[in-house]
Amino acid sequence: MLFLDGVGIGKNDPSINPFFAARLPALRSLSNGELPSLRSRSLSSRNAAILPLDATLGVEGLPQSGTGQTALFTGVNASKFIGKHFGPRPYSTLRPVIAEKNIFQQLLNLKRKVLFANAFPQRFFDYVDQKTSRLTVTTLSCTTSGLPLLQVDDLAAGCAVSADITNTSWPELGYPHIATIEPAEAGRRLVRLTESNDFVLFEYWKTDYAGHSQKMSEAIEALELLDGMLVGIIETLDTSTTLLCITSDHGNIEDMSTKSHTRNAVPAILYGYRHQDAAELLRDGSLRKSVSSLTNFTPMLIEMLSN
Fold first, then answer.
1. What is the pLDDT of residue 291?
2. Residue 281: exposed, middle, or buried by beta-carbon count in 10 A (0-12, 13-18, 19+)?
3. Summary mean pLDDT of the chain
4. Quick one: pLDDT band at residue 175, thresholds 50, 70, 90?
5. Entry pTM
6. How far is CA 26 from each of CA 22, 217, 271, rounded to the nearest angstrom?
7. What average pLDDT does the segment 213-227 reach?
8. Which residues, 6+ apart, have CB-to-CB distance to 67 below 8 Å?
9. φ, ψ dihedrals at 271, nearest 5°
10. SS (H, E, C) the chain
11. Strand order in the sheet with 243-248
């Protein structure tokens, strides 16, 4: 699973939407050269399905990461639970919900092997030791589930992936021995990690940062880096055994005319093994949901990994 922070479905307008300004051959290849837009939010091809998920969760205001990611990774409507959208980190009363219902814990309860593939530098652990309330939904999910966060040694051994995909930031963080890699190699590495794990998650936050920057060049760079990684995934993923899921928590980067988040639906991209079954579950089918939303995602994954 690739979790992209701050990616919605926007207008087919390259002047404000970098998805239509960037070169994204890998992403386009999933749906016969097309990308989702406000006019065509659902797409399908032989190996993939793309459909929209509501990120507003029936609550007024702009969606935020804390509640959006909680809904995405637990199946609980966090915004309704606390009565508002909240972020970037989870609201205090959501922490017990995340501890009990996060996707890692649910899969561990099913005896599945799971991995959060992002590597973290030592300064992150030092920072968290001083203020644990600064944990994001994903890192909080790991720590409360007893799942170790990966570190520089894991990255050096090829058993983790850098949040910036290519490792370019690590020498500046005090690790000159960490070599830069091509985006496609990061993608191939993620696929290799699925060989020894039932569920692998990678989190990419540059999309949200670029959206807030309102710099089109930065947004295009973030998306093209991601597409380069997707090249490596598509080259090596066995679609007869493995499903690739890509989604987000709220809109942002798809509309560079605003610095804030958007109320746009987010894309759910399903590629490979049983992608049509996964799409049906997201549409609400056996999940008894009235509207496809972020809350459908974790139940879909649990269902897919239970069989």
1. 56
2. buried
3. 95
4. very high
5. 0.96
6. 12, 19, 12
7. 98
8. 57, 78, 79, 82, 84, 85, 86, 87, 90, 91, 94
9. -135, 130
10. CEEECCCCCCCCCCCCCHHHCCCCHHHHHCCCCCCCECCECCEECCCEEEEEEECCCCCCCCCCHHHHHHHHHHCCCHHHHHCCCCCCCCCHHHHHHHHHHCHHHHHHHCCCCEEECEECCHHHHHHHHHCHHHCCHHHHHHHHHCCCCECHHHHHCCCCECCCCCCCCCHHHCCCCCCCCCHHHHHHHHHHHCCCCCEEEEEECHHHHHHHHCCHHHHHHHHHHHHHHHHHHHHHCCCCCCEEEEEECCECCCCCCCCCCECCCEEEEEEECCHHHHHHHHHCHHHCCCCCEHHHHHHHHHHHHHC
11. 43-44, 48-53, 266-272, 243-248, 2-4, 199-204, 114-116
Amino acid at 228: G
pLDDT digits (tens, 9 = 90+) for 84-139: 999 999 999 999 999 999 999 999 999 999 999 999 999 999 888 776 668 999 99
Tokens describing residue 60: 């007024």
Cβ-count burial 212-245 (b if 16+ within 10 Å, e if not): beeebebbbebbbbbbbbbbbbbebbebeebbbb
